[in-house]
Design brief:
Distance between the termini: 39 Å
Low-confidence stretches: 193-197
Radius of gyration: 27 Å
Number of strands: 5
Structural class: alpha+beta
Helix content: 55-70%
Strand content: 5-15%
Shape: elongated
Mean pLDDT: 79
Largest sheet: 3 strands, antiparallel
Number of helices: 5
Amino acid sequence: MCELEPPLNVVPLRGPFSSVRLVVNTKENAMEQKSVGIRIVPYAIGIICFILPFLQVSCSGEKLISFTGVQLVTGSEMSNPMTDESEDIPPNGYAVVALIAIILGLIFSLNPDKGKSIVAGIMGVISVASMILMKTKMDAEIMKEASGFPVTVDYKAGFWGLCIASAVGALLAFMRAKEMSGQQVARVDGSPAAGSPPSHP
């Protein structure tokens, strides 16, 4: 009668360090999930900022026109109090770019990979840059249309909230990329990664 030999590849996990490995892996997973949550919060807040007022145009302290972030992205029909006519406001390209960038930043922040963290950081920078360019261009255009009237442009919570959230999201993403780079260097050098259980013969 032939006897079946036990598979040689099965090695039971034994020894005093088996439970240590399990605890360490569990803690690392929990810490990683918490880290991902922290990184996506700024981008999520930035997206919410689009439903808030972005800017308001006033003349002699009296409100003329106001826009939310959504109105800037989708375009809207606004009445011009100076001419009593309705005007179609087309989507603002800078606002569209900022929204797309911050959504992509949130998506790439879900992955702890170094490359994707760098991309997430770049998306945050693009969002901030788009808002700065939008502000510069709109200030110039509105002042030109004012034709000497005491018109002022006030940027509201949505605008500043988006700028701050995008900047914080980019900073956290670049910090994560730097951390991952340090871990890769440590592995190449043969140094144990943070939280790794001690080796044993």
